[in-house]
Amino acid sequence: MSIPHPATTPSPRQPLAPRAALWWTAAMMVTFLAASSAPSPLYALYREAWGFSAFVLTWVFGSYAFALLAALLMFGRLSDHLGRRRVIVGALVLEFLSVVLFWQAESVAWLLAARILQGVATGIATSALSSMLLDLSPLRASVMNGVAPMVGMALGAVGTAALVQFAPAPTRLVYEVLLVMLAVQVAMALRLPDTVPRRAGAWASLRPQMAVPPAARGALQRLLPANTVGWALMGFFLSLGPTLARQVTGNAAPLTGGALIAAMVLPGALASVAMQHRPAALALAFGANGLTLGMVLALAGVHTHAPVAFFAGALVAGFSMGCSFSGALRTLAPLASPQQRAGLMASFFVCSYLAFSIPALLAGLSTGWFGLHQTALGYGAALLALALVAALGTRALVAAKA
Q1: Which listed CATH number (3.30.429.10, 1.20.1250.20, 3.40.30.10, 2.40.170.20) goes with 12-196?
Q2: How far apart are alpha carbons 237 and 189 in whole angstroms?
Q3: Stretch among 125-134, 138-147, 298-307 having the lowest mean pLDDT
Q4: DSSP of 18-71, one letter per residue?
Q5: Would you give the DSSP letter of residue 395?
Q6: Topologically, how does it sit relative to the membrane (predicted)?
Q7: pTM for this model (two decimals)
């Protein structure tokens, strides 16, 4: 199946057919995540132009995760009350404005404002788009919700890196491309079907909710180490990874950093597909043990400046993170009733995005004291230790399922 070209679609007054709406919704999710990773290959250019530290860089990066968390907690249930289409259109408009801020950025303050607004837009969109996919095709939604974000992050990183390397004015051109894409998608979002009716309670739904049912607490505690390793590694790669890749490979080409990000996130998308019909306990065991191997390879690559080992570690860790993430979601979901599931998922994603942002911020601070090479080794060693704990913890889950 392919996404319909805007020129061949019916009149704007006619809602999209369910199949077309499904693929356009997936495309919107890809675009949101592509926009989120697009600035990563540009951070080195911004640092050269404005002279800020690695810690400031990771603070700009981390602000996105904190804003996304706040938006997810506050607006995660809003589309249940206002309807999916209205919330998706609003999120796309906010994303468009954030890209305008990136496009016109003249200082770190502009980047920070753009990144915060982008986090809010993505947090609002995440729940609404995921729910729309479930409404349109429950069978395909689980795979699409796992694949689309990973593919989007890879496209954003590699696409931006390619523009930096081969095109003029990369700090403007990449955002101009995104603005065109978002404008088209706003037009298509206006034609998405209304899959849920409007209902009362929109204001009450803005109250942040986090709740872990008693039946899920033990499992969540055992799942957190592996989940933390994967998200913390991704946060490091998306913020400081491109600079580290240039050090390890000795190649200053922007595509080197984009390739590192793609090497982690694309295997994660593949894992979501590969594990969809496997037992959740098997996915967890494979993920935790694979993260251990991936960290060993990546650390060896950093220590010896061996690009093959470094990128192999990213590939193994990325695939393993996808396995672990898939297994975690399928383990937790049955442990909550439908009325408890939103609170449980919110708690899980709060833990995930905290792991995504806070360790990266600490790594940025450490880089100013010890340098990026030593920071990467220390960061990797800490994640390796946690991965070993995760491997031991998942054994209990596997044994319980046996």
Answers
A1: 1.20.1250.20
A2: 32
A3: 138-147
A4: HHHHHHHHHHHHHHHHHHHHTTGGGHHHHHHHH---HHHHHHHHHHHHHHHHHH
A5: H
A6: Multi-pass membrane protein
A7: 0.79
Spatial contact of 387 and 324, defined as CB atoms under 8 Å apart: no
In the chain the first and final C-alpha atoms are separated, in Å, by 39
Quick one: tokens of 143? 């795979």
Mean pLDDT of the region 231-251: 88
Residue with tokens 């206002």: 82
The yes/no answer on whether domain 211-402 falls in CATH 1.10.10.10 is no
Q: Which residue is associated with the tokens 């911020």?
A: 361
63 pLDDT more than 80 = yes
Report yes or no: 313 and 301 within 8 Å, Cβ to Cβ. Answer: yes
The tokens 């090497």 sit on which residue? 263
**pLDDT in the model for residue 210:** 67
Task: Check if the beta carbon of residue 298 is closer than 8 Å to that of residue 314.
Answer: yes
Cα separation, 183 vs 371, whole angstroms = 42
